From TrEMBL, chain A:
This is Acyl carrier protein. It comes from the Bacteria. The keyword Phosphoprotein applies. PROSITE patterns: CARRIER, PHOSPHOPANTETHEINE. It comes from Sphingobacterium arenae. Keywords: Phosphopantetheine, Phosphoprotein. The lineage of its organism: Bacteria, Pseudomonadati, Bacteroidota, Sphingobacteriia, Sphingobacteriales. The keyword Plastid does not apply. InterPro entries: ACP-like_sf, PP-bd_ACP, Ppantetheine_attach_site. Coiled coil: none annotated.
Amino acid sequence: MTALNEELKRKIIDVLNLEDITPTDIKDDEALFDEGLGLDSIDALELIVLMDKDYGIKLTDPKLGKSIFQSIETMVAYISENRTK
Amino acid sequence: MTTQGVWRPDFFSEAREIDQAITTADQPSYKGLASPAAIRRMSRGMKMGMYAAQQALGETAVTVPDAIITGTGLGCSEDSDKFLRSMWENDEQFLTPTSFIQSTHNTVAAQIALQLSCKGYNVTHVNGASSFESALLDTLLLLTSGEHKNVLLGGIDEIAEQTYAFLQAAGYIKASGLRETVKNSLSPGVNYAEGAQFFSMGVDQTETSYGEVVDVALQNELDIPEAGSFLQDFLTTNDIQPTAIDAVILGYNGDENDDLFYNALQQELPLTTPLYYKHLSGQFDSCSAFGLAAAAFILKYQTIPPVLYWNEKNPAKTTWKNILIYNHYRGKDHTLVLVRTC
């Protein structure tokens, strides 16, 4: 697990108040929404704010969200390429 | 009904007296209360409220009430705290939706309605220390209008760190580190807490009925000498003599200025057994709902838990028919509630 993977998992657990879940419980390639971690549309809004606040990434195209928020792996890849802080 | 489990017969014998400035309510297990995704977003107030509502409805076997009415002084202040803190710390940027959505005062009543698919009358009263009694008055009016058969009535307030810190800085809450109870209080301010109480109110008496709420009166502000006339007017309106009141549940909270009102009212009812409850519930805007819960307990079980006696037990009294509840806070929001056996 890379440092960014670990950091992102911790932030997601904290922001979404995922009770009884630790970073090691979230697999890097596990789906974040639906049958995976079970996140929903309100969580997606929280993740958009998290990306902006912590990594300086503004997501303006809603179509991109589906692929970016697919898993920790996809989020980390997008953050690594586009972060401004 | 309360998250503290007040309807359990052994509740009062297990109750602990509050002796610190801020006390959080004991939390039951919330598994099964709602979907895990919904529960993880809820503040304590929401969870306590929904849990207490579920218990109240479960006991009366009402699946969906005709109306939901709640009273709260500060509403979902935990989420309000979070939202305002986020605005402050992030220069009004990066505002997240969850705490904003859940920061309103009517969040609990709305969440219960969503959970039950209850599309009926849904109102939350916010009026300081008389928020719960305002909701109770609304309930009585709704039921006596004949349009509704049953109402889910509740009072909810939760601790929010920053809000309570402000109240403490203003001297409303005792200083941290003090170990004072209602009776041995020496310093100004009171011991604060939080809680949720829900009642299933109906027009018809059923096997699960605890008692009848006869009337409620509210008065915004009074001076201590006026407490007596407030009581007399209420008793006259309800055509009941002071000697017919078996017990009076007083909101003694350990603040000398507040407690003078309760002393004054007690003097008007020399033959009535005085009781108190804020040493168990703590002070919060809707805590008088706990007083009503205590009254309901007494009416149902026809016994007064020893922990509720303000002074020496009256050994001659064995039946409890009419109970009066008097509450106010800081000389404002005075309320009288009369309940009796049914």
